[in-house]
Structure formats: C-alpha cells, structure tokens
Amino acid sequence: MPAYEMADLIERQLDALAPQVVALDGEIVVVDDASSDGTGAVAAGWAAGRPEVRCTVVRARRRGFSNASRNAGARLAAGDFLAFTDGDDVVRDGWLAALVAAQGPNTLVGGRFVTPGRPEPRGLLPFYRLPQGVALGSSMGFGRDVFDAVGGFDRSFRYGGDEIEFFLTAQLLHGARFREAPDAVIDYRIPTTRVGRRRRQVAFQRGSAIIARRVRRIPGAPEPGFRLWSRVRTVLGSAVRAVVGSERGRAEELDRVRVEAAAAWWIVRFAVACPVPRRADPASVDVGYVVLHGHR
After folding, report:
1. Measured between alpha carbons, how far is 33 from 52 in angstroms, rounded to an integer?
2. Measuring CA to CA, how many Å separate 218 from each of 113, 131, 155?
3. Once rounded to an integer, what is the mean pLDDT over residues 215-222?
4. Residue 182 CB coordination number (10 Å)
5. Domain spans, the chain
6. Which residue has the higher pLDDT, 275 or 22?
7. pLDDT of residue 280
C-alpha cells in the first residue's frame, strides 16, 4: 500500500483492511513515500497496537512516487498473490476476498470503485478504446508470476495512469489476461478543489500521452484513440461553451480547455521526442527504505 502525506487518513484504510487480511491469513505492507507528516509513524503505531495483524511498515529515505512504492511493497510481501490499494481510500467488506477469488495464472484482476456523488460501483474504462482491460491502482491484484514477468512497475513513470501502463504492458507484451472482480469495491477519494482536480487531470493526460506513444511502438498492438485532433476539437468545443455558458459552467469548461490543451501539447512533445523506455525496479526493496515496523 503506497502512502504519501496521509497521516490523517491511513488508519481508516488499515482498520478496513485488517479483518479481511486476518481472515485470509495475509499481511499488510505499507510503504511511506518519504512523507513529511509522519504517515509512516502513524502506520507503525497502528501496527504495534494490532499484534493479530501481520503488518510491515517501511519509509523511503527519499521520494520515489507510487510505482517505486508498489515495487518495494511487492518485494517485501511474502505471498504469491499481490493486492494493491492506496492509503487514502477505504476498501469495503469483501474487497480482498473478491480479488483473491478472481485470481488465476497470468491474470490481472481489477476491482471497482465508488466516488462521491456516484454511489454505483464502476470499473475503470478501457484506455482510449483499446480492448485490453485496466484497473484503478487502488483496487487491483495479480499473482507474483505477472509481477515478475513484467519486471515490476515502471519507476520512471510518475504521472497519472501509472497502473494503466503496467496493465497494458502485461497484456500486450506478456500475454496476461484481465478479469474483473465486481465485488471488490473501494471508496475512492478524489480532490475536493477545482485546482486539485485539474492538476490530477493534467497529470493523467501527460501519462496518457506517454502510454499511447509506447503502445504505438509495439508491433501488432491496437491503435489507441488518444490523438491530437480529438484533443484540439475538445479544446475548441469547450472554449465555445465557456464563452456562452453560465458562470459555473464557464469555470468547468475553462478547466477542461486547460486539461485538453495540456494533452495536445504532450502528444506533440512525445511525437518529436519519444519518452524514456520502461524502467522496472527489481532491487527497490534493497535501497533507500527504513523498516519502521515488522521483521522483513
């Protein structure tokens, strides 16, 4: 479980996970990504008060972002099935059991999520019309065979969609299959401010441009629908609606203009200079992490 600046949130997630992990004789691995608010200490304190739960807590000496944290957690974990969630979300009852029940050889499992204002659980939509399944990084799981075959998560990928990059790599280059676990549901936390939402969307667009470029370089891979003209068309449409719309609608449309303009820029940028090649991190557990609780 990656965690960054989540000292006031992580105990809710750990409380929700604990009975599910104990019931399946599993373990929790928390990786604090060099937080400044004491996230790791909070998690370690929680673990010290729950001796019935096998829990390891480590802290990075310097920030490595989500994928490096996932790699470290996977290397520390003892089990053959790896389930991933985030420290600021909350898993619902039966989440872990549903992921485990859906596992299989060379299989990626994706759960569902609920966001404020949308009470019906839903899964992540396919990446720009690609047929391969993808899942949210805070509700996914797969066997260690998949993790080892892919080489772990790309530690150079520090943008939105980092889990999508892993899922597409596993399917397009390593023949993995995708299976949804509809009963594996989490309450997914999203930014509450316009600025926070816009920053997340811009980061996802940059990540999407990198993913689309990488997919196009795979021989025989399907063509993703993430294209320059569609982004420009969206910018123009949102700009028109911002001019003629209400004040509230104008703000939303201007945010969309900014997000889609960023997407267009990154498409052009990575068409000229290809993004860095995929870099997994098989030795991440050996470098830069301090154990705060546990014996691994």
Report:
1. 25
2. 30, 15, 20
3. 88
4. 13
5. 2-192+279-293, 194-272
6. 22
7. 64
